Amino acid sequence: MTAATLRRLIVVGLIALWEILPRAGLIPELFLPSLSSTLAAGWNEAGEYGHALAVTLYEVAISMAFACGGGILLGAIVGSLPRPRILIMPMVSSLYAVPLVILYPVFTVWLGIGSESKIAFASIYGFLPTMLATAAGIQTIDPQLLLAARSMGATLSQRLVRVIIPAAIPTVLSGLRVGGALVIVGVVVSEMLISSAGIGYLISRYRTILDSPHVFAGVLLVLAMAIAFNAAIKWIERKAAIWQTGTRAGQNAAEEITPTLQPAT
Amino acid sequence: MQPLANITPLKPAGAVEVRNVGQIFKTTTQDVVALEDVSLDVKPGRFVVLVGPSGCGKSTLLMMMAGLRQQTSGTITISGAPIPEPDPNRVGVVFQEASLFPWLTAEENVEFPLALRGVTKSDRRARAQDALKLVGLDGFGKRHPHELSGGMKQRVSIARGLVQDPPVLLMDEPFAALDEQTRMTMGDELLRIWAATGKTVVFVTHSLTEAVYLADEVIVMSPRPGRIVDHLQVSLPRPRTYEMLSGDTFGSLRDRIWRHIRKSA
Amino acid sequence: MRGLGVKAARVAIVVALFAIWEILSRSGIVNPRLLPSASDTLATLGDLLQRASVRKDLAVTATEVVTAFALAVPVGALIGFLIAENRYFADVAKPLLFFAFSIPKSIFLPMFILVFGVGFAQKVGFGFFSTIFIVIMSTTTAVESVKVEHLTVARSYGATPMQTAFRVYLPSMLPVLLEALRISMIFNLTGVILAEMYASRDGIGHQIATWGENFQMKQLLAGVLMIAVIAITFNELVRWVETRCSHWRT
């Protein structure tokens, strides 16, 4: 049996177990409601979930613009200037060790429990990895490429547009993937903690009334969101950087950065 | 073969003159003399090889001829005029290993210097095709660098150096990363291209065999400080053949270079 | 000299940030009720550290973090080893693990409450769950970072499996393992604190959430500062060991 076949079997088996075990009563419905009852719960409250999804997506979109826009911009600046890089980069990555969740209560005090506090928190949550990855991506550009461009008389702006930006695309995208995933986590977690709308809020509300099927329906929805986002970034990666498939250096750089920046929690 | 587009060169086209050039690198602890009183005259259409141990400043000298670095003292002129900054109309540069842009195809890489100057797409493509044909890569234009072998990548680099038809081609250890067989083939190819175009070539290498095999003249340099210690005329007839490698003339020239290098090591 | 200059500049940046904070609050540009001054916050921090209840919360959190870590690291490392050592198993499991690794863990937090209730087990369980995937992944990376050439050399000189393990595997993997330890700890700490903030009766995360709900800004900021200092100190400590251990790596 090939590895891929076995893998598919495992996935199918896990999904089947999710249905069978709760139905057979081997796992209490409170701990894990069966797949069918979860889907049914979600379907019956489709309107409520749809509204919550709209709120969450709105918050995610705005946070994403802040986190990724700011992260890429600042990362590019810090990465291309040696002095700030030596000075700031180690500080930023130390900051990365702090569990940023503790900042969320601060934002709720400052901005209330509406969308603003979620957006502020999620933007900061996604900002750091995007910035780190972009700065690292700019740094890993082969200096010989820049020298070659200079020998052909490329001006500073031509070097930026034609060499630095395309060369940094793979790492920036991997930063975007991690940053974007963190933005989603940030929004949902903050909704779960204190809020009055969004999928995270629904999950928490149903959890307090011990309505497991509705909790899991919300969890599934967030999962779908995360997976869809991942797939979208992968698609862009394929479109934007065909060349990277062959360059070990580019790929290594991207892979080296990704694990350290994966969404904590 | 179609001639490449002509650019009216400054007179005397293709001459390289180096007069009393010195270079001092300032570090925090001390000043390092990289080059000291180097003078050199390359006549148009000649094939001149710079050879010497690591740290003798041969690559530094080449970078100055390319306008990529400025000397501390003395003058360098290309086709009669100084070169304060890179000028691809006067000088083409080929770097060690392929400094090709991995996100561009072979022909886009060759077109790159033209694109920097806003040459129209059709004009660019036609000239890139000519240059690729010249280096024997007809039909490989659509491939990305990672789909090409080491030798082919260097052919693309040479095409890129020649696409603006500069009278002078500077080559910084272009074949250092290739295996020996490819290296021999590429040497023959380079000589063919040189004979077909009549360029002045200044070529930097570590390999004594390569130096004697390719050159009209070999300049031997010694390190700390970088100076010219010998200037040999290679009287072997053209075209050069593999059999010459085992001849007496070849052997005695190579021995003479080796004695200089051993002394300075 | 240069390294010293950079360190001084970093200290200067931190001091400057605190100074701006102080000025913003004192001058009234920002409402001091929303942003108490840096000096007040630091004073509160000192005060909090004296309090028995805060110390107890810190001890609770530390116990949870250490327990979750002590469970997740050996279990994760074992699974990681098994995966890295068997090609077929690796082909089967790796994409699944990558997937599990890339999905947000925090949304499963309610499940831990449903299963374990609110308490020690739920927080440790979630900390374990947050950490185990990164441990598995890092162990796999660590095993794969051992160079085949080095193993061949060891074999050609007749090294026993034990010798290979201690003289080739361990030194090759050490830097990667330390890095893994550092990152796992970040994940672990985040997981436990989030679990405490979400639903808990004790622990420093719970305390911070409560201060936030009661608009006690001084205590809240002092708490944030306290956690940040603890996390950064641990992080820098492991990094320091890392550079000591990997100075021979190019």
Tell me what the structure shows.
The complex is a heterotrimer of chains A (265), B (265) and C (250). Chain A has 265 residues and is mostly helical. Chain A has helices spanning 3-23, 35-44, 46-80, 82-95, 104-111, 115-139, 143-151, 156-193, 199-208, 212-240, 248-260. In chain A, α6 (115-139) packs antiparallel against α8. Chain A starts with a helix and ends in a 5-residue tail after the last helix. Mean pLDDT of chain A is 82; it is low at 245-264. Chain B contains seven helices and ten strands. Chain B has helices at 58-65, 106-116, 121-134, 150-162, 180-197, 208-214, 248-264, and strands spanning 16-26, 31-42, 47-51, 73-78, 81-82, 91-94, 168-172, 200-205, 217-222, 227-233. In chain B, the strands form two sheets. Chain B has a six-stranded mixed sheet with strand order 6-7-8-3-9-10, sandwiched between helices. Chain B has a four-stranded antiparallel sheet with strand order 2-1-4-5, covered by helices on one side. In chain B, β7, α5 and β8 (200-205) form a beta-alpha-beta unit. In chain B, α2 (106-116) crosses α3 (121-134). Mean pLDDT of chain B is 87; it is low at 5-10. With 250 residues, chain C is mostly helical. Helix content of chain C is 83%, strand content 0%. The two termini of chain C are 23 Å apart. The chains are: A mainly alpha (265), B alpha/beta (265), C mainly alpha (250). The interface between A and C is large, with 59 and 61 residues.
